[in-house]
């Protein structure tokens, strides 16, 4: 359940970034975000990182779902949001101080990119959510089988609730795959034969289009199947609530439903790395295209099949790293203020290391800083030019300055919270937008982190142990930094964020003894003497208020209207209105509390409304400030009969129904019965049902159906009460042939959910088992041979009923249940056709040897049927299915009976490919014994047996078997594929056999070393370097490995490369950029510092020009883009020449001056 809410929370936060409605496509940039939206984005990143971060104690998502995110998006999203989560929710580092100091204009462009990245990623979170929901749904069904008593099972399904389970019904629309397929078709239809788009290329594109359509169709079919099984599941829950339900039947039906949703590799349908061949072809077409429009179209298709790249996240992560130069600057300023010597570089570095270790990770904890500085000034290397006492005095003055600065920063954070709260509803605590809520959460988390680190907030577990727990103190920090769900379960305090934020704003904390605190905006409120009293006060407020709410709800539940009027007439009108507006811990408002507490009294007060203080609704109308709800109450009071009749049906009040039904119009009453039909049979006793059926006209129920098309007979059968069923049968025998929305007859429900006695009663009254094929199929699934004997063997009607049968063929059910005798009875006695339902494929997949022998031994059966037929479900022959599923006996039997072991399907897959996919050594040996087998044959999507083995995570021992025993040939793409999937052990095995493939390149001319660098796989990169991989090989853009590390901010990899003397630091790509220029352009300053320390020439940065932008320099670029952080870095750190001019003869200073004049104008 936690995993379900984690992903829903992420989707809510991504949607909440927008301050207003937005229908733009994800790739379109929104305006540069405001400060509130920037904080909302930070909060969203922190929440995503927390969701993806999984531990044994906090399993937010499963390992499989983490793998899905990495497959269909990018490692940047899955991995780097974890790092950003740590940065935003733990401590207050010097890097964070620097980031927060940047203006909105400076940092806005970065967060604009991140917002676009998150909008692109949203669809994959939706897909991950559907996967998570399926897992939860299956686990829930499996858990139903573990109960020992039916009473405990009923309590459990009531506890989980229908609303939660209803939220699991979501579908994923493969929009990107659909768009890619339509674009490919458009390009094929609009293209003339050419050298670039020749016949072979067109054939490949048509194959890619078919492959995409196959995936789209399967996803849609799975959505439909899942929806159908969920409907079965809700009917199962209705059955569990019936008095005749049994644990054995629940377990059996749960198994049936689970078997129809057992698709463990659904994510393969949208796994983007699986479409690598298509991406290669599209990249080739894009690069070779001369028409700009068509080049754009090929690129658009490629983009839809490639992984998303999150450049904004990458840039932000670069800014969160602690820069050595910034830390050193701060250290030098501190040493200057204390008159410490700066001429000894080793000493300065020593001081910097001490402060970085003890203080720079959390700058608000000044005790750590000044403890280190006291030790430093006493060190002999400090020179002691001044009296130590004077230095200590300067330390005190410096600390006072620091305390004032940090206090002002904290007050600024509270000012932001105050600004957000100023747009909220003071009574309800509701904020203006979801973006405001997220921004407030982020600000409150920062404030809580600061005061926790200063030990102002302490643990308050004793307060959580109270009968009415509240959230504040360190628990508030944990509530925001980790997971709301656990705390929201413990406490009814649903506005913890707003309450604590308002409290902090109105009772401003003094972080340090010498700091000056900004005066709170709320005058007249007494301030607490100290922090302990302050937080005791907030506990007391929340606790007293919660107790008052509980007492108020008791008054409403018991309809003590006189007492209620006295409470509402108190002079504190705001308190009265707050009580009326409040909700219980189950999120019920005051009207629902009254209804749930006493429905009889509720109906009576509404029907006998009097405008006096003894009537609940009179009090609500006069004292409730919610005008919308008051209007609804007034409308109901004007005509209460239909509403009260619905309530009487819902709560099983037969006397109220009897009093109301003749006062209500016939059409309205029939509509009510139809709407409440399912709840009538689920909630109420058989006595109430019979009383209701006797009360209302019998002809009504011949046409009445619930929302799923179930009639009163369907529900009576599901109920399983023989007396009630006999009563309904005598009145509504004509409903025996009625089908619900899914084609289910009452007889089918009887066969599925009950013992034979219910079905036999229906058969005795004339139920026909042959009008719906699923009846016989269900009997077969149950192994109901005795019931089957009651069915008339009307062969003609059997054949007509099963003409289009596939999954509903009862012979398939017999094979699945491994019931051989029943299979023979259905075929030999009732004449079911073995040529329908792909029985041979099914028996091969499940390794049903007896069935295979029967099907293969009877020549009459298969005289017009090929044993090499293609399954529409798998597109494979029975032999290929047996090989893929690892069933040696089935594969051997099929091979002995004349199957074609060399058969290729339309995608050129063979039994050898399937055997390699299965990985069973015995089957591999069996297939290898087939004469003329080509172990290196390639499928249409360019996959060989070795490619499949690498894709399916097979071990190095299995790969070695293919290389040695099977004689599979290693090709360059195998080495590249192993690199791409991060499989170092397999890569080592392949390189040992073919060392020359260290220089292999893919369609982008990337070598294995380049792929290892891009994947940020240090161990694999080290392996390739040790084996002699070319360090300076270049890709299609002329970039070497060091360029790529600089571009992607891979600091660990860049250090590894820089340690290698053979790597060219000054190599230029096709745009004449050195690795240093690439690092600077991307603002990856940590890597820039690494390059400079290893001897990279600064002159290369000085000389670089943007030729397409009037030969501007890097300094011009950052000036035009208004990135003062980078301008300052270039000028002060790199001593970038400021007199360089562009083609217009302007320096960067001149451009800055022009921009400021334009701004003033």
From TrEMBL:
ANK repeats lie at residues 1004-1036. Coiled coil: none annotated. InterPro entries: Ankyrin_rpt, Ankyrin_rpt-contain_sf. Keywords: ANK repeat, Repeat. The keyword Repeat applies. Gene3D superfamilies: Ankyrin repeat-containing domain. Pfam families: Ank_2. It comes from Anopheles melas. This is ANK_REP_REGION domain-containing protein.
